[in-house]
Design brief:
The complex is a heterodimer of chains A (114) and B (113).
Chain A (H helix, E strand, L loop, with lengths): L3 E4 L2 E4 L5 E7 L5 E7 L5 E8 L2 E5 L6 E7 L2 E6 L8 E8 L9 E2 L3 E5 L1
Parallel strand pairs in A: 2-11
Antiparallel strand pairs in A: 1-3, 3-8, 4-5, 4-9, 5-6, 7-8, 9-10, 9-11
Chain B lengths: L3 E3 L3 E5 L4 E7 L6 E7 L6 E7 L4 E3 L3 E6 L4 E6 L8 E8 L8 E2 L3 E6 L1
Parallel strand pairs in B: 2-11
Antiparallel strand pairs in B: 1-3, 3-8, 4-5, 4-9, 6-7, 7-8, 9-10, 9-11
Classes of the chains: A mainly beta (114), B mainly beta (113).
């Protein structure tokens, strides 16, 4: 029944490693997002896909590469992890309505880079 | 760039009192606003939204007020309960164009029993 799910919930890894986070939504939405929440709780958009097409790509290091195999899934791959990548990463989804739309968030993936 | 901000980082209230959480936004082109609640260890949860053609919207125990003249948004929680303790974010976006939400910095609401 979970609307937006993410795996894993916790991810602890060494600097320099490559890791992936997965996201799935069963709401039938056409748009998915990745947000990063830092230690001060500030949430910032990273990427957005609409029907598998990248529509938002904020100033994010190119070590971060999103991939959307279909409109229900949006994964995030991170190469050469750095200490500063430690944060909580949230996936979200919404349906384009042309009049403002609510985004629904997943439970988050807590990434700790050692 | 333009941003959404909150006046108070922490708000402490007694159980049963009403709570008011404020938010200032600077993007005059924003036309859709959302309040989210984030409990510890969880993702942001939708509470209530309001479009720019309205100035007030009520939900169950919550009311959102929008003052476009001074670019101010507030969330009122009636009869605050311990379960309301969380971090509250306001967020804004535009119906057209860029669809990502711009979040404020959050206000922590602490409900004292």
């Amino acid at each position: 029944d979970t609307a937006v799910s993410q795996t894993p919930k916790y991810l602890v890894t060494q600097m320099g490693n490559d890791k992936s986070i997965k996201c799935e939504q069963n709401l039938g939405h056409d748009t998915m997002y990745w947000y990063k929440q830092d230690s001060k709780k500030f949430l910032k958009i990273m990427f957005s896909y609409n029907n598998k097409e990248l529509i938002i790509n904020e100033t994010v290091p190119n070590r971060f590469s999103p991939k959307s195999p279909d409109k229900a899934h949006l994964n995030l791959h991170i190469n050469s992890l750095e200490l500063g990548d430690s944060a909580v990463y949230f996936c979200a989804s919404s349906q384009r309505r042309g009049q403002g739309e609510t985004q629904y968030f997943g439970p988050g993936t807590r990434l700790l880079v050692l | 760039g333009e941003s959404v901000g909150l006046h108070l980082p922490t708000l402490s209230v007694q159980e049963g009192d009403n709570s008011i959480i404020n938010c200032a936004y600077s993007n005059s082109a924003s036309d859709y606003f959302i309040w989210y609640k984030q409990e510890s260890g969880k993702g942001p949860q939708f509470i209530i939204d309001i479009r720019s053609n309205m100035d007030k919207r009520q939900g169950q125990r919550v009311t959102v007020l929008l003052n476009k003249t001074v670019k101010h948004l507030s969330l009122q929680i009636a009869a605050t309960q311990p379960g309301d303790s969380a971090v509250y974010f306001c967020a804004e976006n535009m119906a057209t164009g860029r669809r990502a939400l711009t979040f404020g910095s959050g206000t922590r609401l602490q409900v004292q029993p």
